[in-house]
Amino acid sequence: MINTTIRNMLLDNANIKSYVNNRIYYLYLPQDVVLPAISFFLVSNFRHHDIDVTRPRFQFDCWATSLSTAKSLAEEIRKTFQREKGVYYGTSIIQGIYITEQEFYETDTKIYHVTIDMYMIYKD
User: How far apart are CA 103 and CA 113, in angstroms?
Assistant: First the structure.
């Protein structure tokens, strides 16, 4: 599954791992999680009609108690996937494409939240 491949690729990045250890979650951020942490989910999933290529859009959410940490995580995610090509954990990645990034501050929890969206084009 592409989401497992994505998580493993993030864990392979030593800079990301130094911030979050194994705190990378698919679909949701657990309640009372230690920060910093990353969550990600599938936004949309375009499948080509005549070739075995899929272009899902994923949103990665970087959660931290400082804006600089959240932004650093987002930058490491971008560097991990942007223009990346190859076979990773049995998945043939054709290319990662950066789309956009946004910054948020959750006033009630005092948590910084930076989102980064990427296309992950891969062969089915």
Answer: 6
